[in-house]
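Researcher: Quick sanity check before group meeting.
Model: Go ahead. Protein one:
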Amino acid sequence: MSMLTPPGMGGKYRVTGAAYPRMSRPRRRRKIVAALLGSVLALALLGYGALQLMDVFGDGSGKRGAAAAGKDCPTASAAPAKPAGAVQPGAGPDAAPAASGAPAVVLPQPGQITVNVYNATPRAGLAKAVGDELKKRGFTIGQVGNAPADFDKKVPGTGILLGSPRTDKAAYSVLGTQLAGVTTQTDAREGTDIDLILGDAFKELSTKEDADKALALLANPAPAPSKQC
């Protein structure tokens, strides 16, 4: 056995020339490099995900939310100026000015509404008294008398406004400002007049001051609450 033969080889391997036997398995460098690259990539993905979470739950969410809300909130535009001294139709002289940003509603004048006043209670002279007061407030008064048999002594509430389905609903609203608690019904009549049938719970008309305020609110409704942007 040569002096160059490693111990334990039993002479099986001999060194000849520049050739040497391999003492260990070749290293798996490719697998190690691939594992390192995979680890780096996984860490990068984790870091990116963490940044996204911070942006969602941190200050970034507020900015995004404000931007998104800004799309749904319209930009307020200045309301067109009204000529000095202009009065909205249907509103009395004591009517409050229109609320900022709320469109005004065109209402019929009391003089354009014909009211028939009928008494369905045992109180004598009630229909005439109410008709006279409504006339003072500008309404056109038609028939005045006792209620028809279908309603006589059969109206437990304040009263009923009875008219044609084709009658402007705003006319019911204007007349309804004169007394609280009335209900509205329709029948088969052709005209646009409205019956005011006074019931057992009726005491008196609303004061003119309260009626004028109610008319003002009808003509100039309060604007709907705006969304916070």
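Researcher: Fine. The other one?
Model: Protein two, sequence then structure:
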Amino acid sequence: MTASADKTAKLWKSDGENVGTLGDKQGNLGHRDRVVDASFSPDGKMIATASDDKTAKIWKLDGTLCATLEGHQDEVNGIDFSPDGKMIATASDDKTVKFWKLDEALCQSPNRTLNTYKTLKGHQERIISVKFSPNGEQIASASFDKTVKLWNKDGDLLRTFKGHNDWVWSLDFSFDGKTLASTSYDTTIRFWNLDKIETQILDLDGWLKKGCAQVRDYLKNSNKLIESDKHICDESEN
């Protein structure tokens, strides 16, 4: 599944065959601006999309529009289903995370409009990503205010993780839900221990320099490489 600036999301087989496009046959019911994120429901029967048109939408796999989520005041950047499929969380440039309740009859009446169930406020800048924990009890959000926030499913703020030196772009929980990873424009990935609130830092620039130091002689002296490949580590020396 991919999201695009062409205002659609597309479904693909593993061999690259396009098997469906969401939004191309909906006329003015589809997104009116670029689609920036998409998420499958846990049962694989629905897809939710987030768009710069300030809305999120829920679709059947055949392209039928089930519902439009209206309530954000700015671009919607991130979207995620809860593990039980009963709720959606969205992240927006309006500095909020919103929860949306879903019911079993969601797609039985096409083109519904859903209103916000709950709005989470606390970030000081635009929010780019939002994720549910594997057990659905917690939600994490990543923001341009350089922080990651952890909320419970009732919308209460549990913790704010500080440490990144620039915008935080994305995040995800580990499979067991005990660790949260966040990526930032500061070129680091941070791993947050949700039990002890500790952090480990993966410095991408540092790893590149270490790796290049180990292969520098090979790059310069190997006769199996083309000339351009011999210089892939030149920038790490600066």
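Researcher: One line on it for the slide.
Model: The CA atoms of residues 123 and 146 lie 9 Å apart.
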